Amino acid sequence: MIKKILICDDDEGILDITGLLLESYGYQVTLEPDSSLLIPRIRSEKPDLLIIDIWMPILMGDEIVRILKKDEETAGIPVIMFSASRESKRIASEVGADDYIAKPFNIEDLTNKIRALE
After folding, report:
1. Pairwise CA distance, residues 77 & 105, whole Å
2. What is the DSSP letter of 56?
3. I need a labelling partner for 68 at 20 to 30 A (CA). Which of 14, 38, 40, 91 fits?
4. Count: domains in the chain
5. How far apart are CA 91 and CA 73, in angstroms?
């Protein structure tokens, strides 16, 4: 069962509102705006799910997911990627993300995708 969710997005407005909404559904949410800090954070926090933006400065979401899926310790963490780009669904699929949601998204659609991964 998914309880701990780590969300990474460089847009702090999206990060904050998504976090608040998911907390209202009973999830324990951790927010990370800096993608360069994400991999060590995942190792220490051990989330049940990662929600990550694809297009970010420093370290792109697809690069992070590739790293996580190749590492035995983190390969089993489900990942939902999100973005407003047209190419993003293909990119998410190519790097091994478990699901994808386009921005802007409806919180009900996101929670349905989370429940489908439980």
Report:
1. 22
2. -
3. 14
4. 1
5. 23
Domain containing 16 equals 4-116
Give tens-digit pLDDT for 9-44: 999 999 999 999 999 999 999 999 999 999 999 999
CA 107 to chain centre: 14
Residue type for position 109: D
Residues in the chain: 118
Which tokens in the block code for residue 115? 């429940």
> Closest Cα to residue 56, out of 89, 24, 12, 23?
12
The average confidence (pLDDT) of the chain is: 96
* pTM more than 0.90: yes
For residue 86, is pLDDT > 90? no
Helix then strand then coil, % of the chain, to nearest 5 = 45, 20, 35
Q: Pairing mode, if any, of strands 79-83 and 49-53?
A: parallel
